[in-house]
Write a structure and sequence with these properties.
381 residues, globular, 8 strands, two-stranded antiparallel ribbon, MetI-like fold, alpha+beta, 4-stranded antiparallel sheet
Length: 381
């Protein structure tokens, strides 16, 4: 006897296909609704849609720029200056946030009671305070209250602190940077070779230490004689020449981003370390490793498998939060784009450019972090 046919309204396959079709129709309808409103708005404005305005003269100045810029340059170049200013704060912020977060997270496991409590206060204070408030605090309460450049604060006779910002010594020759990069890569490879010998063969790696010491001496010589340091000098009309000038706006935004995001990174690091079973600690100590070696060789590498995914989110948040620097007049990409929009009235085009810029940057960071995540995961055969 043939089995009874299942009614269509009780067929799971029918409902799966139907719901997917309805979802696609809903998405298309919503997209068409927004596109219709966009076309209607552009038509009512009386101007077409396009990016030809980027070739017109900007007619405004930008206080900070990594590439030459004048008010007669086109809007496209002004937008590029804003992107570079954003990248300047993002890249430096990512490096400093990583260093601060890892140091604070590891310090939570220090045997020093005072150090642990200081880190706890730092994490709770900066994590639970709005980042915009912190940015305004650094700018108005700290840098704005520093003395003028003529009464500047000197640090080690080479660093100037004033209400204009910070001026530090900087490199005037590029070949030394290449040499330092080569030495850093060679030192990293030597360090990994020595670590592997220590773990696999119990070899203390004295030869590796001698090699690393040689690299250190070479790096010190390059730092002293091969970089051609440019020192800041106060000239006439209190103009600073030489060195690298970091504006008060840049420093305020950078410090706020680093301390705020670093507090979250510290908690991610602490959580990753706590995720490593205690048996791993005990086994490493049973082999005679001190606390530093246990953390560096056993615990931290395993904690990375837990830490990398949430770190990706924090890095993306840092990059997106950099747009808040507009509140203290730092000329990042959103600030420059707002000026362009106010002058041209091309709101839709500028919003699309801003969205594309942040989306591209975030996708690149996510791609790099996903690659790092794949490297630290356990490879099954």
């Amino acid at each position: 006897m043939a089995s009874a046919r299942v009614p269509i309204w009780r067929d799971d396959r029918f409902w799966k296909v139907t719901l997917q079709i309805l979802a696609v129709v809903a998405v298309v309808a919503i997209a068409d609704f927004f596109l219709f409103n966009l076309r209607w708005s552009i038509a009512r404005r009386g101007s077409g849609f396009g990016f030809d305005f980027l070739g017109s003269a900007a007619s405004f100045d930008i206080g900070e720029h990594l590439i030459p810029f004048r008010s007669s340059d086109p809007y496209g170049r002004a937008f590029g200056v804003g992107i570079l200013n954003s990248l300047k704060i993002m890249l430096v912020g990512l490096v400093l946030t990583t260093l601060l977060g890892i140091a604070a997270g590891v310090a939570r496991f220090s045997q020093n009671w005072l150090l642990r409590k200081i880190v706890v206060v730092y994490v709770e204070l900066f994590r639970n305070t709005p980042i915009l408030l912190q940015m305004l605090f650094w700018y108005f309460a700290v840098f704005s209250n520093l003395p003028k450049i003529e009464s500047r604060i000197l640090v080690l006779d080479t660093v100037y602190l004033s209400n204009r910002g910070v001026v530090i010594p900087w490199i005037s020759q590029g070949w030394g940077v290449v040499g330092l990069g080569v030495l850093a890569i060679a030192a990293l490879l030597t360090w990994r070779w020595r670590t592997r010998r220590l773990v696999e063969a119990g070899d203390p790696g004295r030869a590796g230490l001698y090699i690393l010491a040689t690299f250190g001496v070479a790096a010190a010589l390059i730092l002293l004689f091969g970089l051609g340091w440019s020192l800041p000098v106060i000239g006439t009309n209190n103009q600073v020449t030489g060195g690298l000038s970091l504006s008060a706006e840049y420093c305020s935004a950078l410090l706020a981003l680093v301390f705020y995001t670093g507090a979250f990174v510290a908690e991610i690091v602490r959580g990753g370390i706590l995720a490593v079973p205690k048996g791993q600690w005990e086994a490493a100590k049973a082999l005679g490793f001190n606390n530093g070696l246990v953390m560096r060789l056993v615990v931290f590498p395993q904690a990375l498998r837990v830490m990398v995914p949430p770190l990706t989110s924090e890095y993306l948040n840092l990059c997106k939060n950099s747009s808040l620097a507009v509140a203290i007049a730092y000329p990042e990409v959103y600030s420059v784009s707002s000026t362009i929009f106010n002058q041209t009235g091309r709101a839709v085009e500028m919003m699309l450019l801003i969205m594309a810029t942040y989306l591209t940057i975030d996708l690149i960071i996510a791609l790099v972090m996903n690659f790092i995540n794949s490297m630290v995961q356990i490879k099954e055969r």
